Amino acid sequence: MVDGADADDEGRAPICPACGVTALPSEVGEGFVCENPDCAATGEPVTS
Q: Which of 10, 34, 45, 47 has its CA 20 to 30 A from that of 28?
């Protein structure tokens, strides 16, 4: 069981560390990718 802030984050999409925008589910494969066109990490996998 997860307590506190970790429980609040469970099931949420991760935030791109490069730009701070919420990552979106990947259209190919699993996980999340940054879809911000102004970000240097666009299309890169984002982990929580």
A: 10
